[in-house]
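Whether sequence alone determines local backbone shape is best considered at the level of individual chains. When preparing material for the folding task, we compiled for one chain both its residues and its backbone structure tokens. No coordinates are needed to read the tokens, only the vocabulary itself. For completeness, the protein is quoted in full, as a sequence line and a line of structure tokens:
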Amino acid sequence: MDKLAQIAASAVDSRCCVGIENYPDRQYSKTYLITMQDGKEVVAKVPNPNAGPRQLTTASEAHDFLDTPVPKVYAWNSGSQSNPVGAEYIVMQKAPGIQLEHVWAEMEMEDRLAVVKQILRYQKNWTSISFQQYGSLYFADDVGKQNSQDPLYFDEHGTAVKNHRFAVGPSTGRDYYDAGRASVQYNRGPWDSVEDYVTAISNREMTCVNRITRLPKSPITLRGPGTYMTSREKKLKALQTYLTIAKYLLPIDRSMASSCLWHPDLHQENIFVNPENPSEIVAIIDWQSTELAPLFNQLRQPYFLDYEGPPPAQGLERPELPDNYDQLSEASRKKAMSLYQSQALSVTYRMLLNIEAPLLYRTWKYQQTASFDLLLIAQRLFVDGEAQYLASILELENAWSDLPGVVAQGSPPYPFQFSSAERAEIEADAIGAAEGMNLMGSVRDSIGRDLFPEKGLVRPDQYDEAKDALRQIKEQVLDLYAHNEDERKLWEEDWPFDD
């Protein structure tokens, strides 16, 4: 830490550091607030081992982002073996303002809408240029492309633009390193075409299924006798079907497949606003794991617009308050109004897409199709989803001839044949997997969302309480589903919440 503090002080022309404060640990990095003797404050960030590949993770984060307010980078080094700190690091400006999460609940709807409009403006900026390749963005020196003569991207007018300072290199997206994938060698890019990109996803997942010693436990399904039992064979079968049909699932409008940069984690804690005017965004942080990926893979409404409750209609219809709203109790009216406002903001975001960003709206419409669902689910089949995927492939037979990608490529016949026994097994697996997902939902509801380890994480002060609650739930589930010692052993092996 002494070396990191010295580098931070030098980077901002201060004499020395007088204080180091740990920020709450993030899943993929450790972050420190470093205070200098002259009052200057900077943030230092050191990637955790699970953040991604050494050198590439930091190198892909240390640059500016398309007219988006980001903290200024004062110093960085992506070579952990070649710097005094002995680890990769970034020293950057402390983000001005306060995190959106501290004020969102009290903001008026008008101010919330202003934040949504700003985010959409940034998202339009991110898609205003289309990169030549898919992967992640680096300084050219860090990936050995400082002498490349190829264009880096195409601007909004379609003009090829060269920029020798930057280059596209391997993807640092989370799906290329999470769940043990970091330990396996396979093609992480860059890729020249969207076809190469989607094919590489299948090859990545197949390689991990074949080479990683133990399949990962599911974060969304409780698996065991009585629900669903996974296997390498089932995963490979699902991935092979994906590889066969992927080219028919891509959007016909290839502008939706353009390679663009996008912030992967627009939660409230990553957005800083002016405390005097909370509708004004002053910084967006945490660009770690940013990819250059197809727009149809990138587009997502900001996470801070997500909410618990029924989704709004799929179109642009405005939500409505319950017909008996005036007769509800005060507590029920408050709950109904909160849901109404959340739905209204989500629908408003879509309406703004339709009016101000037609390409993004067309892409959102494509994301509502079966074609996109089959592309999306396939990206994590190494971890989960093969039962539902194969069931969707069965259902696809009836809709195959109507898929736009099939029609555009000469209407080839449905490419699969399943025996009666195979169909019965796939259908039974889908029912069992659905029960396992419902069971996981029951566990979440039973112990409460505060204690449930979303993404394997709970607050440190709640760790013992969560562990105890999950231990009790485990015994209840095993008593209900395990009818003998062999079944109990299988449940024990795939239980996702043990240390």
